Amino acid sequence: MISRDDCVQLDQNDGLAFLKNEFSLPDGVIYLDGNSLGARPKASLARAHQVIAQEWGVGLIRSWNSAAWFELSTKLGDKLASLIGAAPGEVVVTDSTSINLFKALAAALQIQSSHPETARRKNIVTERSNFPTDIYIAQGLAQWLERGYQVRLVDSAQELEAAIDHDTAVVMLTHVNYRSGYLHDMAGTTAHAHKHGALVIWDLAHSAGALPVALNDCGADFAVGCTYKYLNGGPGSPAFIWVPHRHQTKFTHPLSGWWGHAAPFSMQPEFEPSPDIRRALCGTQPIVSLALVECGLDIFTQTSMAAIREKSLALTDLFIDLVETRCAGHPLELVTPRDHALRGSHISFAHPHGYAVMRALIARGVIGDYREPHIMRFGFTPLYLNYADVWDAVETLTNILDDRAYDQNQQRDTVT
Fold first, then answer.
1. What is the rounded distance in angstroms from the CA atom of residue 103 to the CA atom of residue 203?
2. Within a 10 A sphere around the Cβ of 338, how many other Cβ atoms?
3. CB count, 10 Å around CB of 107?
4. What are the residue ranges of helices labelled H in 346-386?
5. Burial of 113 (0-12, 13-18, 19+ CB in 10 A)
6. Contacts for 144-150 with beta carbons within 8 Å, 24 or more apart?
7. Helices within 178-277 (DSSP H only)
8. CA atoms within 13 A on the CB side of 304
């Protein structure tokens, strides 16, 4: 069995270890929840002060021009594009994931309904285990349109192929399942959907910044995602939407706000969409939170997604091995696939008292999170986690389980 000394040696040979210095993390904390909220880049504090004290405080409204606030959404989009296999001019950072998904789904349905061969298609296919907001957005839009659209829920990734047929208008999937960590085959699923005349929307919330994504190479149609997880943009930081160049002139949605206008300061009473990716914007952007996204994105310029993925798989392999070896005999069930090709960058274990065990871990400085039913999630962010962190986290988990040092009757916090 691997020892802690072995893990320390791995850290000494780790080509990404220097990046941990880019982040501010509390002493005595092993942070395994970057899959839900990334750690704070050290640069973000100075950037926030610059935006608030100088750009806003001194520049005032002039900063829309002098500090290039107006171009910030597209500037950040171009920085993010390289991490998800997109081209310049195809991404904007804006709004929330839910709002961006609404835009993408509305656009996809409009494209399908305007084509004679797909106009009668009424099914939106997704997983029952998809993140709930994605399902809710699809259900709400389908109900509001009153055109007979239905959300078809499948119970496993294996059922997707059969569910995508001549009645499918849009396939809407999260690339890495938020609960299990299952990684979909983006290229294969997209090709299968296109073969049957369907469009595909990918939610990259748990893959952007965690593993290589190749949207254009896979021929995907639309994608959305958040910046506050692996991209370390800050709590509630603006999300992003990807619209490939081939779809931009057809991209229309009901949220046609003034920032998506071809000439927003012409103040025309009729909406004329911007000819480019700006048409995916809606209203005035939240500059303070938007500016902090850049601090997280800039860290990625010091490495590659291939190197990040290699370390992610090594960390998660180590975690699985140590948990199954050192916690043998306890009622733990691995929920995440072992196969690298099917695994994202978080590991989920089920335990009958998962919530209580996670609370005990957090109390001892090992921060993960909990998802129903009985799922303890552990996120592995290679930018600031090391191998010794993994060993120490499992040591803490082992002690809690061996000593039954958890309260089975805890009242649930509002946020789990």
1. 13
2. 10
3. 26
4. 354-363
5. middle
6. 145/109, 147/113, 147/122, 148/122, 149/109, 149/122, 149/123, 149/124, 150/122, 150/123, 150/124
7. 186-195, 215-218, 245-248
8. 4
What are 141's two structure tokens?
Answer: 């839009």
Residue pair 393/364 in contact (Cβ under 8 Å)? The answer is no
Q: What whole-number distance in Å separates Cα of residue 357 and Cα of residue 373?
A: 13
Distance of CA 32 to the CA centre of its chain: 15
What phi, psi does 351 have (nearest 5°)? -145, 140
What span, in angstroms and rounded, lies between the C-alpha atoms of 371 and 180?
10
| Residues forming beta bridges with residue 244, ordered by sequence position | none
Alpha-carbon separation of residue 263 from 24, 90, 216, 257, 270 (angstroms): 41, 19, 29, 12, 11
Give catalytic residues, as residue numbers. Answer: 131, 203, 228-229, 377
* Cβ atoms 202, 220 nearer than 8 A: yes
Q: Write out the two tokens for 198.
A: 């369907």
Contacts of 46 (CB under 8 A, 6+ apart): none
CA nearest neighbour of 92 among 117, 75, 105: 75
Structure tokens at 273: 């969409």
Which amino acid, residue 263?
A
Q: Going residue by residue through the chain (416 aa), what tens digit of pLDDT does each one get?
A: 899 999 999 999 999 999 999 999 999 999 999 999 999 999 999 999 999 999 999 999 999 999 999 999 999 999 999 999 999 999 999 999 999 999 999 999 999 999 999 999 999 999 999 999 999 999 999 999 999 999 999 998 889 999 999 999 999 999 999 999 999 999 999 999 999 999 999 999 999 999 999 999 999 999 999 999 999 999 999 999 999 999 999 999 999 999 999 999 999 999 999 999 999 999 999 999 999 999 999 999 999 999 999 999 999 999 999 999 999 999 999 999 999 999 999 999 999 999 999 999 999 999 999 999 999 999 999 999 999 999 999 999 999 999 999 988 878 888 88
Chain position carrying tokens 């349905």: 109
**Of 363, 361, 344, 364, which Cα lies nearest the Cα of 353?**
361
